[in-house]
Amino acid sequence: MVSTDNAWEAFGKLEPYYGVFSKPYFLTKNLSGDARRVFFETGERHVHQIFGVVRETLDPNFAPRRCLDFGCGVGRVTIPLARRTGEVVGVDVSESMLAEARRNCEAQDARNVTLLPSDDGLSALTGRFDFIHSFVVFQHIPRERGEALLDALLAHLADGGVGALHFTYATRASMPRRIAQSMRARVPLVHNVVNVAQRRPLRFPHMQMVCYDVGSLLRRLQERGCHRVALRFTDHGQHLGVVLFFQRAATAPL
């Protein structure tokens, strides 16, 4: 199995913006000043929508003071979060992504951001957070590992704190396409051949997609005291997902 960590470090070195938001407009060769502006505008809109859902469904007075952005990439969401809160911590498995995020934070004067390397135990993190966020990240992490990371994130959620975490749960891809995707993830030579066929660099990294069991995710939330839950579906073409909004607050079972 090709290491997903290695793949994201490769994206960080080769195509950091495309790795975060996979549209040709954000390839390095197209990344003009206008494209970069549009890229961060998508993050502003995303944070506006996320905060709106939280205030509508969980806490009308939601105003987090300390936020965690898991899988922060180059800072697309981290920087907009920094404009709305006192402190933001961004973590990512790719040192190259973190380096680009630091440059973006400096350029946009986001001085209340701390950027840290991520590992399976989130060992660099300390303290608790009022808000924990992740979007289009878990879908690239193998399920068993991703569920363990979810547990680690929940251990850092403050009492009364809110989470907004995105997971894919189904695919519309045909069976032959699913088999081909599995082979690309497991056998590097197969992926290299596909890269050549698609006129990409031979070692262009593979963006693995993973589906999660929503029931297993909800069980983890319930067992860890996150009893107030809402959701919003996502639809990224072939990949169906859900953003789980939750608050660490005990409620009596029905």
Blueprint (SSEs and pairs):
Blueprint: H1 4-14, H2 16-20, H3 33-57, E1 66-70, H4 78-82, E2 87-92, H5 95-107, E3 113-117, E4 129-134, H6 143-154, E5 157-171, H7 175-186, H8 188-197, H9 214-223, E6 228-236, E7 239-247
Parallel strand pairs: 1-2, 1-4, 2-3, 4-5
Antiparallel strand pairs: 5-7, 6-7
Helix pairs in contact: 1-5, 7-8
Describe the structure in your own words.
It is a single chain. The protein has 9 helices and 7 strands. By secondary structure, the chain is an alpha/beta fold. A 7-stranded mixed β-sheet has the order 3-2-1-4-5-7-6. Helix 1 packs across helix 5 (95-107) and helix 7 (175-186) packs across helix 8. The longest helix is centred in the N-terminal third of the chain and has 25 residues, at 33-57.
Give the strand content: 15-25%
Rg from alpha-carbon coordinates: 18 Å
Q: Largest sheet at a glance?
A: 7 strands, mixed
Unreliable spans are none
Helicity range: 40-55%
Report how far apart the termini are: 44 Å
- Encode the helix/strand succession as letters: HHHEHEHEEHEHHHEE
Strand order of the largest sheet: 3-2-1-4-5-7-6
**In DSSP terms, counting alpha (H) and pi (I) runs of 4 or more, how many helices?**
9
Instruction: Please state the overall shape, judged from the principal axes of the Cα atoms.
Output: globular
The chain-level structural class is alpha/beta
Q: Provide the residue-averaged pLDDT.
A: 89
Q: Tally the beta strands.
A: 7
